[in-house]
Write a structure and sequence with these properties.
single chain; alpha+beta; 18 helices; 43% helix
């Protein structure tokens, strides 16, 4: 019998130690693996106490291993989180595997959405010992999913509500989907559209362009951009659109369908057309302004020449017996010079520089006079329809010049319809002009205007003619029917009144002229008082200034002939110095307004600074009454338009001397 104390087989001892060492090694490796696992992992005993925690679990709860292991779960995760997870832990330690998706505000990771798996743990004998708790942070995954859903929602919303109009077509070109806005713009419902060829909603010309040019290229390249089409609404209206599309291909690279975005640019194209029209009108206004400046300069110099002819012919006529041959010759010179003066007056009117006396004018009265004249002179076949104007429609202007404007345009309308049963309409109304329209029409000011409209059903004009009608000497009339100055003068008169003229016309559709004149109301004006001229003796000492030596001498000769003592100057600086040396020796000054060096306005200010009561006459070839507000004492200030006659000079001097003496 063997001794019970005899040693075991040596071979059995290493095997047992090896197995135990390997088991301990496996546990160590598993523990290290769990500790470094990126998922938050912990072990909870049956008494709901932590006995293990890995690094990720410690991080999300912002606690060390010593602050977790051996402590109840409730102390680590807090009562609120424990209340949510306790039922799941208890089920797990009872043998039921389960999970929970919950929102947790981790102190170490912030608000997170996590999936928590509760995994029961049994001994080798099957005894329940506790459970593993594994947390998978789904926050980023949920965020991405939410963003994807939002994107799909936005895409669907964009497709349904975008104002750009969206539709999709299949390989055969039939519509398979369409946005809500597409339907709204064209006036259809979805059932009327789906399954129809997309080209059915284009005009005939655009459909041909699509089938022959755009679609073959699209099927080759798979895209198109900003293709201009004309679409038809259900009501038959034509829309200007730009279409862009991109193809969707299958795995074989074949186009299965396409998505197209259509932008309605109808209003944009109209705005562009209006902009071009406004720019054209602005260029025309600038062109007319430049022509006016040139014409005004020429007229100014021509007036100086006429002043000498008219003045000296009058002086000569006063010294020659009436009825003599020489007197008749001079009378012809004088008459011709006056005809030239009237022509220059038209040029000045065109250039907006003509001097005129503006008073309150009831526009209805001017229209009544024009219509009465037209009905008496026009052929019976031409009807003139007249709508009586509101008697309260007033402007500040020159009634004679306005009469000229309306009669000229009315006569043009008559010539446009004289070979047919024609109809002309004229009426006036009050309108308000906005800044945009004002800026593009000769730079007039926004505000209330009286608009006089003269329209006819005559031949009309093409665009080229319409652009040139206000140019001087441009005419489409037959020889002898007009000089071509009429409408250019009308343009100048209206512009000189602070207004503008707009024209609409098409060949065969007639023409419409709209004359805009600033409206005034009763409280804005009063009738100016006039001072009658008195026939005073021609005595007094006068200073006459003009930079043209011939005109300076003419002024001295004319005033001397009237009985005045005169000193004439062709140098304004010299004249000013003489006056400043002896300011009380002169009873009146006559000076040209436009002079080199010191001009007339500057001279007046210098003279008035020394002697405020000196009466002054400004002679000018331009209408310059706007200057008077800067010249002081307007009661002793008058204007005399060149070329002036001996009688006009006499009356102006008498009148002003009379006023200066209080008579």
């Amino acid at each position: 019998m063997k001794d019970s104390t005899s040693p075991r087989k040596v071979t059995s001892i290493p095997n047992w130690h090896d197995r135990k060492a390997k088991s301990n090694l496996n546990i160590t490796v598993l523990r290290e693996f769990l500790f470094e696992l990126p998922l938050a992992c912990a072990y909870v005993d049956k008494d709901l106490t932590y006995s293990f925690t890995n690094r990720a679990h410690q991080i999300i709860w912002n606690r060390s291993e010593e602050e977790i292991v051996g402590r109840p779960v409730v102390e680590v995760i807090g009562s609120e989180n424990f209340a949510k997870s306790r039922p799941h832990i208890e089920r797990a330690v009872s043998g039921e595997r389960n999970s929970l998706e919950v929102k947790v505000d981790f102190p170490g990771a912030g608000p997170s959405i996590v999936k928590v798996d509760f995994i029961p743990h049994r001994s080798l004998q099957g005894k329940l010992l506790g459970c593993f708790v594994v947390c998978d942070n789904l926050t980023e995954q949920k965020r991405v999913e939410l963003e994807r859903l939002k994107y799909l929602e936005k895409y669907q919303s964009l497709y349904n509500h975008t104002p750009a109009m969206l539709h999709s077509i299949d390989r055969s070109g039939r519509i398979v989907s369409v946005s809500k806005y597409w339907l709204e713009v064209l006036g259809y419902n979805k059932d009327e559209v789906l399954g129809r060829l997309s080209t059915e909603f284009l005009t005939e010309e655009s459909a041909k362009f699509a089938n022959n040019v755009i679609l073959p290229e699209f099927y080759r390249t798979g895209f198109c951009k900003d293709v201009p089409y004309n679409m038809l609404t259900k009501r038959g209206e034509v829309l200007d659109v730009l279409l862009s599309a991109i193809a969707e291909r299958n795995e074989n690279g074949e186009i299965e369908r396409s998505v197209a975005v259509t932008v309605d640019v109808t209003n944009l194209k109209r705005a562009e057309a209006e902009k071009k029209e406004l720019e054209s009108q602005l260029r025309h206004a600038q062109k007319m302004e430049a022509l006016g400046t040139l014409a005004g300069g020429i007229a100014h110099d021509f007036n100086n020449i006429l002043s000498g002819i008219i003045g000296y012919s009058e002086l000569a006529l006063g010294k020659i017996p009436k009825g003599s041959a020489l007197g008749n010759y001079l009378q012809q010179v004088h008459s011709s010079a006056y005809r030239a003066k009237n022509l220059v007056q038209q040029i000045l009117t065109f250039s907006q520089r003509a001097a005129s006396e503006k008073v309150p004018v009831r526009i209805g009265r001017v229209i009544d006079e024009i219509v009465s004249l037209a009905k008496a002179t026009f052929q019976a076949g031409v009807r003139v329809n007249h709508h009586s104007a509101d008697p309260d429609l007033h402007i500040i202007g020159d009634a004679t010049q306005l009469h000229q404007v309306l009669l000229n345009i009315l006569t043009n309308a008559y010539h446009a319809v004289d070979e047919m049963e024609g109809e002309i309409e004229i009426y006036a109304e009050s309108v308000n002009v906005g800044k945009r329209y004002a800026d593009s029409h000769g730079r007039i000011k926004p505000g209330p205007y009286v608009r006089v409209t003269i329209s006819d059903n005559g031949r009309g004009m093409n665009e080229e003619v319409k652009k040139r009608i206000f140019e001087p000497y441009f005419t489409t009339k037959k020889s002898g029917q007009g000089s071509g100055l009429g409408l250019s003068v009308c343009h100048g008169i209206v512009a000189n009144h602070g207004g503008t003229i707009s024209v609409w016309s098409k060949p065969g559709k007639g023409a419409k002229f709209a004359i805009y004149l600033p409206q005034v109301f009763a409280m804005e004006y009063r009738t100016p008082e006039t001072t009658p001229a008195h026939d005073l003796p021609s005595e007094g000492r006068i200073m006459f200034i003009d930079d043209e030596p011939m005109l300076a001498q003419l002024g001295a000769d004319m005033l001397s002939a009237l009985g005045y003592q005169v000193m004439s100057f062709s140098n304004a600086t010299e004249a000013l110095q003489v006056f400043l040396n002896s300011p009380n020796e002169y009873d009146l000054i006559v000076t040209d307004l436009s002079m080199p060096g010191i001009n007339g306005a500057q001279l007046v200010r210098e003279v008035r600074a020394m002697r405020a009561d000196i009466p002054i006459i400004l002679s000018t070839g331009y209408g310059a009454k706007h200057e008077q507000e800067n010249l002081g004492n307007i009661d002793l200030l008058d204007f005399l338009s060149k070329p002036f006659s001996l009688n006009e000079l006499r009356d102006a001097v008498h009148n002003l001397i009379c006023r200066s003496k209080g008579n």
